[in-house]
Amino acid sequence: MASCDKSSKVDVRDLFNALGDNTRRTIMDLLAEHDEMTVKQLSEHFPDLVRSGISKHLMQLRKLNLVYSIKRGREQIYRINPEVVSNVLRPWVKKYEKYWDDTLIRLKQAAESSKRDHDE
Amino acid sequence: MASCDKSSKVDVRDLFNALGDNTRRTIMDLLAEHDEMTVKQLSEHFPDLVRSGISKHLMQLRKLNLVYSIKRGREQIYRINPEVVSNVLRPWVKKYEKYWDDTLIRLKQAAESSKRDHDE
DNA sequence: TCCATGCGTTACTAAACGGTAACCAATTAC
DNA sequence: GTAATTGGTTACCGTTTAGTAACGCATGGA
Questions:
Q1: How far is CA A52 from CA A26, A31, A40, A72, B120, in A?
Q2: Domains by residue range for chain A, with CATH
Q3: What would the pLDDT profile of A42-59 be if each residue is shown by its tens digit?
Q4: I want to staple A82 with a disulfide (CB 3.0 to 4.6 A). Which of A54, B83, B99, B118 is the partner?
Q5: Which residue in chain A is spatially nearest to B98 when comparing CA positions?
Q6: Which nt has its C1' nearest the CA of A20?
Q7: Are B99 and A93 within 8 A, CB to CB?
Q8: Cβ-nearest to B20 among A17, A85, A102
């Protein structure tokens, strides 16, 4: 629960502003891979950063509702807010899907045409 | 042709660094929508920016091989580099596809279970 | 030829941003 | 009880960066 229900406020601008930083994007990628992680676990993936740095990035991600957290003992468990990914990232990606479709089609056509005749 | 063949150098870091800026992401979105545009056409979508600003962003996008340009008369035609979108954006997106799949499944399950029993 | 148009490029400045250090509160282990 | 762990918060600093202004350079039309 918590701040997971304000996902309607997130726009594509916030999303990419967050993803524009390498550390934050890696945090998101790690959360996408492991489903849930503590700050400690996350910070172990960033040996060049002190933990407060990670915490600050998580603060931002939380404010933008890209992630949410629940408390368990003295640990804080972070998870990706799936609504945001589904409602913001997915529609944006749709605009670019034609490019990999086109690329596939083009590569296929090129492969086929080079099989038949390779005049050029 | 031109600088379209160096797409192997682009990584996800460069991509999101570029997309992190609102102007650059909008430029990419416009190019994705219109296939090809001149600098003039692009700058008409940014009434708050002078043309040199757009040009600077395009310079960046070109250096990162996210777009390429060809000259036609005194105009410069810009297009998205489809290889980059296909080779960099697509693999990254794959990590997050499960979220909208999960969301769909979860919404479907919720709808079904609330049909049967809605005991909070 | 002369002027307007379309772009690129270079300093420059003001603002934003990432990272650190230091401190705090809450929880767990001893 | 005390000490250690976990992580949030704030102030601060150095760097980056977006946008502008001003210039140059072609191309196209008169």
A1: 16, 18, 11, 19, 39
A2: 9-116 (1.10.10.10)
A3: 999 999 999 999 999 999
A4: B99
A5: A32
A6: C17
A7: no
A8: A17
- Cα distances from A76 to residues A81, B79, B90, in angstroms, run 15, 45, 31
Q: What are the tens digits of pLDDT across the range A17-40?
A: 999 999 999 999 999 999 999 999
Q: How far is the CA of A52 from the C1' of C23 (A)?
A: 12
Partner B, chain A 3-22, Cβ-Cβ below 8 Å: 12-13, 16-17, 19-22
pTM above 0.70? yes
